[in-house]
Amino acid sequence: MLKRILLFLVINFSALAIGGFFTKAGVNSDWYANANKAPWTPPGYMFGIAWSTIMICFAIYMASIYPKYENKKTLITLFAIQWILNVSWNPIFFYFHQTVLGLFTIIALTVIVGIFLFKNYGLLKLKSLWIAPYFLWLLIATSLNAYIVFMN
């Protein structure tokens, strides 16, 4: 189990590192500074804390579900799609300023994480809660992205 957790931690945090490269430049840009942002937008430091916590929890979730999931190919495919959507949102939104495409991307990511959470509850029972912070954060992030789409 520990080896699987470490593997998923490396994969998850590589996504954060790649995404962070685009996020840092975007957050400090005039475009983002001048955008109308949702009043419930958390302070900047919260994003690093939230994403680090989420990726640790998600690694535990993936390490827990992997041995129980019958179709490993489907599981890894869903995980890979989730990873690609997670990483791609940052340049789409912050680098290319494509807020509508970013919204569709984050909605797709939220759906995938929702599938992990709700479809696999029967396999993991309460261990499914390891992915709940990811799902809840994505709901908030989707609302923040949508606010920027509709208010700018």
TrEMBL record:
Keywords assigned: Membrane, Transmembrane, Transmembrane helix
Compartments in which it is found: Membrane
Domain of life (superkingdom): Bacteria
Entry-linked Pfam families: TspO_MBR (PF03073)
GO biological process, one term: tetrapyrrole metabolic process
Entry's Gene Ontology cellular component terms: membrane
Membrane topology term: Multi-pass membrane protein
Classification via InterPro entries: TspO/MBR-related_sf, TspO_MBR
Membrane-spanning ranges: 45-63, 75-94, 100-118, 130-150
Main location: membrane
Assigned protein family: Belongs to the TspO/BZRP family.
Protein name as catalogued: TspO and MBR related proteins
